Amino acid sequence: MKKNLLFVIPGLSAGGGEKSLVSLLNQLDFNLYNVDLFLLNHDGIFMDLIPREVNILPLPKDYKIFSMPFHKSIFKFLIHGRILLSYYRTLFSVNNKKTKNESLKEQDNWKYLSKALSCLDKNYDVAVGFLEKTSTYFCVEKVKADKKIGWVHIDYNKLGMDPNYDIRYFNKLNHIVTVSEECANILREKFPTEQNKVRVIHNIVSPAAIKMMADENSSNVFNKKSNEIIILSIGRLHYQKGFELAIGACKNLVELGYKIKWHVIGEGEERTKLTGLINKYNLQDHFILLGVKPNPYPYIKQADIFVMTSRFEGKSIAIDEAKILNKPIVVTNYPTARDQLQTGIDGLIVDMDPKDISKGIEKLIKEKSYREQIISALATQHLGTEDEIKKFYQII
Questions:
Q1: How far is CA 234 from CA 240, 264, 308, in A?
Q2: The domain 207-379: what is its CATH number?
Q3: How confident is residue 336, by pLDDT bands cut at 50, 70 and 90?
Q4: What are phi and psi of 38, to 5 degrees?
Q5: In a 3-state reduction of DSSP, which class is residue 124?
Q6: How far is Cα 59 from Cα 70, in angstroms, rounded to an integer?
Q7: CA 16 to CA 22: how far, in whole Å?
Q8: DSSP class per residue in 42-105
Q9: Can you tell me the distance from the alpha carbon of 236 to that of 15, in angstroms, rounded to the nearest whole number?
């Protein structure tokens, strides 16, 4: 008899965790499992990549109203006599304005948001909250399942969350999955009573699929000129990704006379701030915010150098993808960087500083033999992680 699985994630608009879920779903054996997916947002660039065998659950009516703009939501609740929900919607809005830290905001908001979400009727063999915070809280409080799993895709110490809030949920989980050994060690230290629950399952990446998608667009996606160096970064326009450091490094390289174009694939709340910096340094022709691209792989393939300027990561899918497409990589020295890269062998790890980032890039530009050595090393690595699905099967 097939097992019934449920996956929960807020949405599939963009992001490493979201891409990781889509990859996992595409590796599942649907002869063994019936799979439901609960999303709080049914839009997003990865929606079309969900396997047809996956059943996407409908949104609850109350949540649809709760997620409307504030005044429209309050009006709808009041005309239907839902006084309590209008009260919780008001508190949700107040908390959004009051709390600055995004992670604490999401934790605090759960007590209001949860009022608009009823428990699911179905009993599951396994329920998986595939992203930290809301996904896990929903799994614990709103799902009936024999086994419950929470997934943490990031260095927990860097999120600024309240561990006293999460421990109440973590102690109700059967397993806490994370994406690297370093992230696992951090969770074990932060939650010593739950350390035996922590498991590592690396993000699933398929070299064959990535290379096939990289060849889908053979045109010159960057409109590159023969004397230009193309640098690419991928990530949400968010403080975590450190793109203001990238802009500073770009400024240094342009001042040194290098003909570079640095492109960023991603969207987010820091677009206005980053655009202001680009304009301030007159880098409009050198640092380009491309927005979200459903298929980023032709861009990775056609770039000369891949750069990640993050302040923290769990395990970056973008780095794995750049390695698969044999791109020389420069990453900042965040705590988990060495889980993915050996400096001087398959890339460069540099200080979290615009000057050092630009020095790393300059080294790859100037020393062609060094760059080719890294490309050759990447070409010999076994980079597929499709077998990670076996670890998932083991814990379910």
A1: 12, 6, 7
A2: 3.40.50.2000
A3: confident
A4: -110, 120
A5: strand
A6: 18
A7: 10
A8: --STTGGGS-TTSEEPPPPHHHHHHTS-HHHHHHHHHHTT-HHHHHHHHHHHHHHHH--SHHHH
A9: 7
Query: In percent, how much of the chain has pLDDT > 90?
Result: 72
Q: How far apart are the C-alpha atoms of 66 and 89, rounded to whole Å?
A: 6
| Class of the CATH domain delimited by 3-204+387-395 | alpha beta
312 pLDDT band, cuts 50/70/90, is confident
Q: Name the strand (E) or helix (H) holding 303.
A: none
- The residue type found at 173 is L
- Cα-atom radius of gyration of the chain, to the nearest Å? 22
Query: To which residue do tokens 């609960």 refer?
Result: 38
Helix 317-324 vs helix 207-214: angle between axes, to the nearest 10 degrees?
Answer: 70
Question: What's the whole-model pTM score?
Answer: 0.83
Within the chain, all domains assigned CATH 3.40.50.2000 are found at 3-204+387-395, 207-379
Residues in the chain: 396
Q: Is the pLDDT of residue 218 over 80?
A: no
Q: What residue has token string 């019936």? A: 34
370: amino acid identity, one letter: Y
Cβ proximity of 129 and 66 under 8 Å: no
DSSP-derived letter for residue 382 is -
Residue 151's CB is within 10 A of a number of other CB atoms, namely 28
How far apart (Å, rounded) are the C-alpha atoms in residues 129 and 315?
18
**Residues 290, 288: Cα–Cα separation, whole Å:** 6
Q: How far apart are CA 292 and CA 50, in angstroms?
A: 18
